[in-house]
C-alpha cells in the first residue's frame, strides 16, 4: 500500500514557499514602481546641475532601492 501522507506534506511545503516568493515579488514590484518616479526626478536634477549624465541610471537606482527596502519588510 502506498503512503500518500508524505507526498501531500511535500506539496504543501512547496506551495507555502512559492506563495512567499510570489508575495516577495509583488512587494518588490510595488516598491520599485513607487521609487521609480523619484529616481527619475533625482537623476534629471543631477544631470541638469552637473551638465553630465550620472553614472547610475534611474532604473538601476530604483532597482537598488527596492532591493534594499523589500528584505527589510520581510525581516520585520
Structure described in brief:
By secondary structure, the protein is an all-alpha fold. It has two helices and no strands.
Secondary structure topology:
Elements: H1 5-50, H2 58-75
Helix pairs in contact: 1-2
What portion of residues belong to β-strands?
under 5%
Q: Give average pLDDT, whole number.
A: 87
The H-and-E topology, N to C, reads as HH
- End-to-end C-alpha gap: 45 Å
Overall, the morphology is: rod-shaped
Total strands: the figure is 0
Instruction: Describe the sheet with the most strands.
Output: none
**Helix content class:** over 70%
Count of helix runs: 2
User: Spans with pLDDT under 50 lasting ≥5 residues?
Assistant: none
Cα gyration radius (Å):
20 Å
What class do helices, strands and sheet pairing give? mainly alpha
Description:
- This protein has a domain at 25-75.
- The radius of gyration is 20 Å and the shape is rod-shaped.
- It contains two helices and no strands.
- The protein has 76 residues and is mostly helical.
- α1 packs across α2 (58-75).
- It has helices at 5-50, 58-75.
Question: Which labels suit this protein?
Answer:
76 residues, mainly alpha, 2 helices
